[in-house]
TrEMBL record:
GO terms for molecular function: ATP binding; ATP hydrolysis activity. Keywords: ATP-binding, Cell membrane, Membrane, Nucleotide-binding, Repeat, Sugar transport, Translocase, Transport. GO terms for cellular component: plasma membrane. Residues 3-239, 249-494 form the ABC transporter domain. It is a peripheral membrane protein. InterPro entries: AAA+_ATPase, ABC_carbohydrate_import_ATPase, ABC_transporter-like_ATP-bd, ABC_transporter-like_CS, P-loop_NTPase. It is found in: Cell membrane. It comes from the Bacteria. SUPFAM superfamilies: P-loop containing nucleoside triphosphate hydrolases. This is Sugar ABC transporter ATP-binding protein. Its main location: membrane.
Amino acid sequence: MLLTIEDLTKTFPGTVALDGVCFDLRAGEVHALLGENGAGKSTLVKCLTGVHARDSGTIWLEGKEISPASTLEAQEAGIGTVYQEVNLLPNLTVAENLTFGRQPTRFGMVSGRKMRAEAEAMLAGYGLDHVNVTRELGTYSVAVQQIVAIARAVALSGKVLILDEPTASLDARETETLFQVVRGLRERGLGIVFISHFLDQVFEISDRLTVLRNGRHITTADTAGMDRLELIHHMLGHELEEAEGRRRHRQGGVERLQVRGLARRGKIEPFDLTVREGEVIGLAGLLGSGRTETADVLFGRTPPDRGDATDADGPIDLRTPRTAIAAGFGYAPEDRKTDGVIADLSVRENIALALQARRGWTKPIPRAEQRRLANDYIRRLDIRTPGAEKAVGDLSGGNQQKVVLARWLAMNPRFLILDEPTRGIDVGAHAEILKLIGELTAQGMSILLISSEFDELIAASDRVIVVRDRRHVSELVGEEIETGRIIDAIAAHENGEGAMTP
Ligand SMILES: Nc1ncnc2c1ncn2[C@@H]1O[C@H](COP(=O)(O)OP(=O)(O)OP(=O)(O)O)[C@@H](O)[C@H]1O
Ligand SMILES: [Mg+2]
């Protein structure tokens, strides 16, 4: 066995995050680590790599007991970790990112050429031949950055590679590239721990899997012999609520909002959009196609430089988020790290935040009302927290995501934009959120749903708009909404059918 963890326990004030967990990893395998939001996956990784001190438990690497007290010590022992949010420095070059801290003496006074050669050697075999190592890392896609981070981790550590939700912000093509890299490393004999909420990916890439639930080890098994429903049962401790299947498409309905020729040069070409009461409009497209840009101009995050919008009462101002909120818009963005939660504030404060901003800071929302709101959403979204007063930074990644969602729901907007609302959210909560979308729209809320998961778009949308090369290129309605047609529209070439934009 390459790595063995025995009887690992870790408690935080008020929470038993890990309760006597065992885990082992073979050389040359991909081992998926699964469980609901808050199950303890990231905590296991952090105890293993010295980010957190464990309360008790033993770790063996290649038969030798180790006890890393920092990520550096873990790296030196042979264990490297790559998180979803790439922890490299975007303003440094690719080469600098790959080599910093590695060989201090040789690189104390580095010759650029040497560093460059070193970096190129490190990247060999990762399929990044098109990457210029002297360019800033930040100029490349998240996928490339992710692979650079892996190359660095492998070069530094070389035995165990831990990937904590590495694919959460990658599209299908990028995920495939990443998987090729992972397979290559498996062949070289590395042991790889893969954490993800995408079960399809787990079945595609992993050899074995381990499920945690409420900080306890539930099962370890060969992936090939595991049935999908059985796996979900292990994760949730109960069956997945019978999915309601596909939404009954609404058509017609009162027009609530008209957008005409809205655009921002370099971001999104002019588009029209009519939003009806209680409808879900899906936005499909590849990463970088213009989906988020569409949301950004609608919400004034990127002020539009042409076009206008009206509702039943006349023109509305979408030039800034403040005016968009005043017009009844809400926007739960994708990137919870930069746009999302304020880690030091409590769950209650984070949820009340946007509502407070809308009412104005001079009219504070009474505590009791804040508490009621927070507890309501903790229950509805099943946010795993000891209570409303817990600092959000102490929640697991997926539960932080739910807090962001709750904040915008609490404002009860007329038109809510959700950018990848289920990324990083476990299968159980995933179904809950889709159900909630159904309830909210039944009460009249209109929703713009951006998602990379076709199943989700198909299940939830009344209409799907396909975005490609920063244009809205086609619209599917009702029964037309199916995977094949969405893919065709995404993949179609520029010539051929014209764009639907003015
Ligand atoms: N720094 C911390 N302080 C207090 N509690 C914490 C801290 N980090 C994690 N926890 C708690 O430990 C438990 C396990 O969290 P962990 O982040 O390991 O979950 P996870 O399985 O990675 O979930 P997700 O899928 O949402 O990322 C949660 O209840 C969480 O609130
Ligand atoms: Mg986690």
